Amino acid sequence: MIELATVIRDLREELEQAVVAAEGERLRFELGTIELEVSVALERTGNAGAKVRFWVVESGANAAVNSTSTQRITVALKPTLTGSGNSPLVSGLAGNREQ
Fold this sequence. Notes:
- The protein has one helix and six strands.
- By secondary structure, it is of the alpha+beta class.
- A hairpin with a 7-residue loop joins strand 3 and strand 4.
- The chain starts with a strand and ends in a 9-residue tail after the last strand.
């Protein structure tokens, strides 16, 4: 399992790469709302500084996490560019095209 914060951080890094790749491209796409649907397990620590952490259940996870201890959640993220509040523009480079 990995932390939900790690999943979102990795997504941010991937989107940043797409924004950089869009610079100078004629065809770009405005990045709208992104919805992540993940299965999560909740972990609550019992000490004085109690904290709740969300762990994303990876596909193929072992039987230690059963279906009764996980929940499916959808997280909607609206990306914006720092300082401007504008939606970023992304593009992709076509690699080997399938024929």
